[in-house]
Amino acid sequence: MKKTIYLVLGLFFSCQLNANNLLIGTPTYDGNANTLTFTIKWDNSWRINSGPSNYDAVWLFVKRQPCGANGIWSHALLSSTAGAHVVSGTNANSLVIDPVTDNMGVLVHLGSSGDNQITSISTTTIVLKLTENYNPALTGPSSATADNWKIFGIEMVFVPTGEFYIGDGRSSNTNNFSDGNLSQALKITNSLQNTTGLGSYNNYTKSPLYGCPVPLPKEFPIGYNGFYTMKYEISQGQMVDFYNTLTYTQQAAKMKAVANRVLTSANQYIGNNNTYMSLYNSSTGTASSVPATFTSAYPHLPMGYMNWQDLTSYLDWSGLRPMTEFEYEKACRGNNSGTANTPIPYEYPWGNTNITNPPGYNSANNSTWSAYEGLCNYQHNNPIRGGAFATALSNRSQSGATYYGIMEMGGNVWEQCVGGGSGYDYSAFRVTNGNGVLTNDGLADVTGWPINGGSNSGTIIRGGYYYSNGNTYQIQVSDRSYFAGDNYNASTNRDAAVGGRGVRSL
Questions:
Q1: Domain presence at residue 169
Q2: pLDDT higher for 185 or 407?
Q3: What integer pLDDT is reported at residue 91 of this predicted model?
Q4: Domain for residue 140, yes or no?
Q5: Which of 397, 407, 422, 482 is deepest in the core (most CB within 10 A)?
Q6: In which domain, by residue range, is 245 found?
Q7: DSSP labels for 349-398?
Q8: pLDDT value at position 12?
């Protein structure tokens, strides 16, 4: 075996920005220093010290495959020591590398000298320090200079700590839900998040049907504290990366779980081969030994056909976690400061009540889109690539972006969140991120995460999808039409309209 060349192509758009083109070069291992060295570049990075007061970042994590381990990839743990990872050579971009306490990866972003700037990150050399620990532990003969290494990058957006509202204030019923929708805006404060929690359902709902039957404690992430969220919905290319690091047994279990697909034949689809949202195995591999190879005809498009177990498996594997529906509303609406970002009745994720189906939506970048307000892919037969509406001329509404520059929180594919009602106890959910280890069936195993999607599961879908059409109310920030869950994301089903993204706690 030889070291893997891993290249991430992020042909996506950011709020008011052009294609980000995240590129990660060939990793080189230094056995004496126990480091990996590689290059990174991406376009249209930002750091803003007013308004959203946030920045974009890249979440980097590493996988290693020993030569004698029959294709078993392990998550390489990285040093959590500040300064252990460095930008080598000239740091023309003033990049900062933030380690994390669980060693699962690092976050790379503009430093404070980048305040109030939007810039393209030119090719920059990064050196990551390994800990010599792996999840799961390495097995079989191994040679670091001959083993395969893969470095993965996911574009993220920082959502800062601060007060915000859940609910859009469309009714005078104080702090109640109406038909599952939060009808009176409730401010989430430091006290609620870090001292008391939301507590009993009757603190924020009028019926236990609409909330958690067990009090939500201060440890439950209701969104006050800062977090990172994926800038775009999980793409087909990212799911291909995921499937291609699983064992044959894990691949086969996930293929068989729904629709009884098998790896003994090539070109078996996860989804439907007549849509834009499918993966397929281009090779069969060898049973219980050599994994199959997966691919997608549309790696740049968001992944559909994702049930809850598909989403959580990917998030556990990558060191992220599911978002809660409270965090979803904060990521859309933004922090509250004085009268800023107070809820607007019936508002969409881009901060107003305008919604426009894009003309010529198959175009890579339609220069006329900036003439429309509230652009959203909600009346077509398939999704479009993340951030497609953002141009150099577009504002937040014309880009369809949230307050923080997060894309497609409305339309395209459904977002899956922890939350809802109808009796499922999800109060044990915490800010615990994934650890890279999956079960033999390729499933997440993080304590406190809901296990199954569907009705009464502690999961809820938000934000609508590419054919919400006459149901545009489902795209509104505070809509909870599926408070009771739905078969859309059940673990026994894969629906083309369902996708998702992850977040990472600090």
A1: no
A2: 407
A3: 84
A4: yes
A5: 407
A6: 236-295
A7: TTSSS--BPPTTTTSSS-TTGGG-SSB---SSSS---TTTT--TT--HHH
A8: 30
User: Phi first, then psi: what are they for 243, rounded to 5°?
Assistant: -60, -30
Tell me, yes or no, whether 28 and 116 share the same domain: yes
Segment (H or E) for 251 = helix 248-257
HEC per residue, 463-475: CCCCCCHHHHHHH
Structural domain total, the chain? 2
Report the CATH number at residue 120: 2.60.40
Question: Is residue 129 a contact partner of residue 34, using CB atoms and an 8 Å limit?
Answer: yes
When pLDDT is averaged across residues 375-396 and rounded to a whole number, the result is 87
User: Does the predicted TM-score (pTM) go above 0.85?
Assistant: yes
Q: What is the C-alpha to C-alpha distance for residues 478 and 166, in angstroms, rounded to an integer?
A: 7
Domain boundary, last residue among 261, 280, 295: 295
Structure-block tokens of residue 215: 């009090």
Q: Distance (Å, rounded) from C-alpha 234 to C-alpha 448?
A: 22
pLDDT tens-place string over residues 235-279: 999 999 999 999 999 999 999 999 889 999 999 999 888 778 889
**476 vs 212, 402, 420, 455, CA distance in Å?**
22, 12, 16, 21
Residues 32, 117 share a domain: yes
Domain-embedded: residue 4: no
